[in-house]
Amino acid sequence: GECISLHLTCNNHPDCLDSSDEGPAQCSSSCTDNGECSHTCLPTPRGPVCQCLPGYSLTSSAGTSLCLDNDECALLSSCSQHCTNTKGSYKCTCAPGYTEEGGHCRAGGEPPKLLYAVHNNINGVMMRPGSSYRVDMELTSHAVPIKSFDYSPSSQEFYWTSPALGVIGRYNVDTGVEYKNEVWMSGIDRPDQVVVDWITGNVYFSQQSSNIITVCSKTQRYAQCSHLFTVPVNTITLMEVDPREGRMFVAGFSRVLSGYPRGAIYPYSMDGEPVASLAGLFSTP
Q1: CA separation (Å) from 201 to 195, 198, 239, 243, 247?
Q2: Strand-pair category, 212-219 with 56-61
């Protein structure tokens, strides 16, 4: 026999050489009472075939076909920020201070700035909406190259790492020169990635050739630090935090003998517990 598309059956036109896709009696009766389908019934000479509307998945229970609603909000790609599942669909919304724009959430207030590190500087680029006008800014300058940095919008402070000096530095945008290149913590063995929780003020960092994440909180003059968790890779390449959702994402890889490195993005809660439902997110083969 040959295969044809399901919609070509029972269309009063033989599409198979033996005309087995047609059958007046069977075609006219197969979808009686909607073929006992929840949504759509397609007639075929062999009986009804049930299909579901978009946003639903076909399943069966006790010999009965059912259409179950898909939870699109379980997919990270569905919405930029907040997702509400509805019957057969979903709805995206933005957090306060953001405007929905083309399926994305655009931050209100001043034009966004793209921050990046080059050698000894943290620079920024500001693009004005609807214009090709570009503003280049040098935000900080350091005596030695920096490895990574993060910015806390609540305290308006940059935190940066210098593996060569073994320090995590801090720079306050408001006070400027007064706190320029202030050493926030010293005596660290090759600090690498650094991120700051702008809600609690906690600072998380990794070290080169290490898979340990350390968290620090500074009260008065001293920082109290502890090893938070160990990532199942040999090398950590990037860290990001989402304080509103209480999530931390750590990217890393392990070298494989006579093969390509194996890596993944690992999600954790802010207190270091793995997020089981997203474990090994976007892993490489």
Answers
A1: 10, 5, 16, 10, 15
A2: unpaired
Tell me the pLDDT tens digit for each residue of 72-122.
998 878 898 999 999 999 999 999 888 888 778 888 877 777 888 888 888
Number of helical H runs and strand E runs in the chain: 1, 22
Report d(CA 254, CA 257) in Å as an integer.
10
Query: Up-side HSE of residue 120: CA atoms within 13 Å toward CB?
Result: 7
Checking if the pLDDT of 249 tops 80, the result is yes
Tokens of 101: 């724009």
| Tokens 């790492």 found at | 161
Cα–Cα distance between 22 and 30 in angstroms, integer? 12
Cα of first residue to Cα of last residue in the chain, in angstroms, is 39
For the CA atoms of 144, 124, 196, 182, the dihedral, rounded to the nearest 10 degrees, stands at 40
Give the closest residue to 192 by CA, choosing from 215, 160, 218, 224.
Answer: 160
> How many residues are given for the chain?
285
